[in-house]
Amino acid sequence: MSLQRTGKQLLKRVLISSGGLTAATRVASPAAVVLMYHSITEDPALTEWSIGVSQPRAAFEAHIRAIARRFNPVSIDDVCDFASGRRQLPKKSVAVTFDDGFADNHDVALPILTRYSVPATFYLLTGAMERGKPPWYCRIRFAFGMTRLLQWTESGVVYDIATDTSRAAALNAAFGIGASKTGEVQDTWVRQVETALEVEPLTPGFMMTWEQAQSLKRAGHTIGAHTVSHPNLAHVSAAEARSEIRDSKIAIEKELGEPVQHFSYPHPALNPEWTPATIEITRAAGFRSAVVTSSGPVRPGDSLLELRRIYGASDFDQWLWNLECTFLGRAIR
Ligand SMILES: [Zn+2]
Fold it and tell me: Is 38:102 a contact under the CB 8 Å cutoff?
């Protein structure tokens, strides 16, 4: 670790523990923060499918404990009411959200949320739940991680995957290709990549069941939608975007027996992950709100269909720093 980096971390710790940031937050304009999580596992290093989306249980528990004691936990509906000017929220209001619908949200995160009485929203990827298969980007990451080959050929283009650097670049290219595919076409393409890389498909069983989703709902949490097959909605046809958004809502409503009002735009690769057209489709499908992956606070007057979030970094000091900076309206560093 460089001296400069150590010094920065020390400064962050001093500012956080001295209450300097808290004092600054008191005078900042009203804001709420929506936190984004994906998978919570005992030890992410043991689950190769989840690299990049899993966080350790202990780190997550430290976050939730801090939210319960030092912040004001709220639901996504509270955030919507705040953004639309229908109500004020206490200072330092924080909403917790999960994307994709991994089974560990129920098995690992739910007991922690219950212990500290923190509400959360779970945006479910209905195609993955119904097939029992992890999201396509996990399957692709797994295939690139496990292959013993030195090259990958896609549509006549040969990608070198012999070194960590070249493999990471090829994986990035694969994410870009997959992000514009949906449904059966996407599934067929993922299986082609697995075959081309000579890798056994990632075994199913990581996604939440409908019974588990019911149990989250019964515990008082909010269930939202996250499309059927996790494309980047800004990079598929309007017809595909419509069916991905609408069909995920219908599937959850059928299983849970209540209206689904909240949506999360998937962001597997490519930018942006939403456009004015995507927003209109989401609004027309009947959603009250939609969250994005761009960092920032939620303030009164913000569009409910473009609510910003911040990533729940595992390192506690970094997480707290990000949260406090976001309340202040500062960019996260
Ligand atoms: Zn997602």
Answer: yes
Ligand 1 ion: nearby residues, β-carbon < 5 Å:
99-100, 266
Bridge pairing between strands 157-160 and 151-154: antiparallel
Among 154, 175, 196, the domain boundary falls at 196
> Ligand 1 center to residue 85 CA distance, Å?
29
Residue in the structure block whose two tokens are 């739940």: 129
Buried-state track 21-38, b at ≥16 Cβ within 10 A, e below 16: beeebeeeeebbbbbbbb
pTM higher than 0.85: yes
CA dihedral for 73, 79, 109, 48, sign (positive or negative): negative
Distance CA 202, CA 177 (A): 19
Judge whether 22 lies within some domain.
Answer: no
Strands 54-56 and 39-41: parallel
Say how far apart CA 155 and CA 290 lie, in whole Å: 35
Cross-strand partners of 307: 291
Q: Tell me which residue range forms the domain holding 96.
A: 30-129+206-327
**Gap from CA of 178 to ligand 1 centroid (Å):** 13
Q: Block means of pLDDT (10 residues each) for the chain, length 333 residues?
A: 54 60 62 96 72 88 98 98 97 97 96 98 97 92 94 96 96 97 97 96 88 98 98 98 98 97 97 96 98 96 97 92 93 70
Residue with the two structure tokens 């870009």 = 176
> What pLDDT, on the 0 to 100 scale, is given for residue 3?
46
**Residues 181 and 241: beta-carbon distance below 8 Å:** no
The number of beta carbons lying within 10 Å of the beta carbon of residue 175 is: 18
Residues 226 and 317 in one domain: yes
The DSSP code sequence of 178-215 is HTT--HHHHHHHHHHHHHHTT-PPPPS--BPPHHHHHH
**Are residues 128 and 100 in contact, defined by beta-carbon separation less than 8 angstroms?**
yes
Specify if 82 maps to a domain. yes
Same domain for 143 and 246 = no
Secondary structure letter of residue 306 according to DSSP: G
- According to DSSP, the residues that pair with 73 across neighbouring strands are 94
- The SS3 call for residue 297 is coil
Ligand 1 mean position, distance from CA 293 (Å): 10
